[in-house]
Write a structure and sequence with these properties.
The chain is α+β, with helices and mostly antiparallel strands. It has 18 helices and 20 strands.
């Protein structure tokens, strides 16, 4: 291991010794590269699959050329004034013009930095087998930590399966910095310039549901940190949205509310009021501040999305209502939604059972079964019912986000229901098969988990095995007890058989 470390260090030292030669090599490689394998983001992170054994010096040049290309093209983490600079200038500003004065080497196994690298370098795979191979590969990683002239750290390393270049700034970027007031949130660095330039990087799309994702993010972040989980959302004239929460306020040492900064940058105007201050921005630029124009308690946000950015010209009341129903059903939230056009203010129904009650109140549904799920580092709940017609409500969520392709929580629920039905049918001496009854099943399942793992980057299918096992066991136990006491849900389907 030590020998491999030293070899990598010496290779990098040689490459960085002559910055003119290195810049020429990077430009030559950059012209040849039209695409590269592995995971790449607009932050300093490059991963390249090793397809054939080669000199690490060549691999380092390949990685660095892609990284420099991303710095120039995307300008994430550097000022706009650096755009268009030559490769040599970018390298000189980052590393200096002479051989580095300090070059550290770390052996990464089960240390903190290993866990951070694993999260970013490996957790992007849809295939569990490939991910497992790369986890094993990380046990044999060798890494050189380059301390740059700017004070940044770049980790350059190799495993038996891939090589990578990972910026220290990337690894800590997910950790929320501490701010003391809304002004620092809205005007931190040049955030608004980056957001205005490439909004799709922050909200997904300006043509699809990006506008609604951002709006929902504002509502959800306020509710999560509110003392009392109650909020009002008003859809005003001319596409203006007003959000009021009387128990939420950005306090000292609070986390960075990123959605507010993004909404400010992508808004025709954005206003924030709490008990201490009033701030207004237009397209992310500060326009007014007043410490007397405040609210009595809590926080009030007024936001008008910039019509030059978003394709949606008018907010869809019913689409927003649908998401508010989901939030109130899946969490202990009280949400009021109002539309100025019709002057109607309604309280959004709450409780996960509402998903089944609202569509089946007139269709002879049997009793609704509530299942509480408790596991190691996750909790959840599910509601199940049987209807006389074929069941068509089957929804699954993880951390309030819909999982369209289901996954471990759905597989566990279905297996638990099947095992319960098999036991009940055998006890009644019934010749029905569990599949005959499952056609009439309706369910909604919601899991809250700290570290969900996904099949693929779209995050629509959960793959935590521990969730599947816990859901299966607890659904079977609770559903069996329920049906032993009350068989009416199955009677509503096959009255003469029970």
């Amino acid at each position: 291991m030590a020998g491999n470390n030293l070899a990598i260090v010496e290779n990098i030292r040689l490459q960085l010794k002559d910055i003119n030669q290195l810049a020429q090599e990077l430009d030559l490689v950059g012209h040849r590269i039209t695409g590269y394998s592995g995971a790449v983001s607009w932050e300093p992170f490059v991963k390249h699959e090793i397809k054939e054994t080669g000199d690490f010096g060549e691999e380092f040049v390949r990685l660095l050329s892609v990284w420099v290309k991303m710095q120039r093209e995307n300008s994430y983490g550097i000022s706009p004034g650096q755009e268009g600079k030559s490769t040599k200038m970018l390298l000189a500003e980052r590393f200096g013009t002479e051989v580095l004065s300090h070059l550290e080497v770390e052996e990464i196994r089960d240390q903190r930095i290993f866990r951070e690298m694993e999260e970013y370098l490996i957790d992007d795979h849809a295939e569990e087998r490939l991910r497992a191979r790369e986890v094993k590969s990380m046990k044999y990683v060798v890494v050189a930590a380059i301390v740059c002239k700017t004070g940044d750290i770049l980790y350059v390393g190799q495993t038996p399966m891939f090589s990578f270049l990972l910026g220290k700034a990337y690894m800590v970027s997910y950790k929320p910095p501490v701010y003391h007031d809304i002004g620092e949130i809205l005007f931190s660095g040049d955030l608004y310039r980056s957001v205005r330039k490439r909004p799709g990087m922050y909200i997904g799309s300006t043509k699809g549901n990006g506008l609604y994702r951002l709006l929902y993010g504002l509502v959800e972040s306020m509710l999560e940190d509110a003392t009392e989980k109650m909020i009002s959302v008003w859809l005003r004239a001319e596409n203006v949205v007003e959000i009021v929460c009387e128990s939420y306020q950005i306090a000292n040492n609070s986390s960075y509310t990123r959605d507010m900064g993004i909404a400010s940058a992508l808004g025709e105007f954005f206003e924030y009021q709490d008990e201490r201050q009033f701030i207004r921005t237009e397209q992310g630029i500060f326009t007014a501040e007043d410490h007397n124009h405040t609210v009595a308690a809590g926080t009030r946000i007024v936001w008008k999305p910039d019509c030059t950015v978003f394709a949606a010209k008018e907010l869809d009341y019913f689409l927003i209502m649908g998401r508010m129903i989901e939030l109130a059903a899946l969490n202990p939230y009280i949400i009021y939604l109002a539309n100025e056009e019709n002057g109607c203010k309604v309280r959004v129904p709450s409780g996960i059972g509402y998903f089944l009650k609202r569509d089946y109140s007139l269709l002879g549904v049997g009793s609704i079964l509530n299942v509480n799920i408790l596991g190691n580092q996750f909790t959840g709940e599910a509601v199940l019912s049987f209807s006389s017609i074929k069941g068509d409500i089957r929804k699954s969520y993880v951390n309030s986000q819909i999982t369209q392709e289901g996954g471990a929580h759905v597989e566990g629920l279905m297996k638990g229901v099947r095992r319960t039905l098999k036991r009940i049918l055998e006890e009644y001496g019934n010749k029905l098969m569990p599949g005959d009854v499952l056609e009439h099943l309706n369910y909604v399942v919601h899991i809250r988990i700290e570290k969900p793992r996904w099949c693929g980057s779209t995050k629509t299918r959960l793959k935590n095995l521990e969730v599947k096992l816990a859901v299966e066991k607890q659904v079977e136990e609770q559903m069996y007890v329920f049906l032993k006491q009350d068989i009416s849900p199955l009677k509503s389907i096959y009255f003469s058989l029970f």
